[in-house]
Amino acid sequence: MSLTVQDLEKMQQQYLHYRMELVKGNIIVMSPSGYESAEVAAEMIAQLHNWVRPRKIGRVAASSAGFRLPNSNLRAPDASLFFIFNRKAT
User: Which of 15, 21, 52, 80 stands the most exposed, by the fewest C-beta atoms within 10 Å?
Assistant: First the structure.
């Protein structure tokens, strides 16, 4: 049985405190991160943000941002960097 993003959204509404991803049609419940891994993720996000913001080249997000990939997977990495292309020079 292959599940969809809509199935994942329904599950997330029922289990608000769980992080979930959709991988190859399966819903994966992510284990809670420990203090150390959460601290590392926070540091990564801070460093990325401090590098990206003054350059105005993209956006940074934490694990609550989900990404729908071309293969229909929905993933939530600990830290994400979106580069913005085709922007006007200032």
Answer: 15
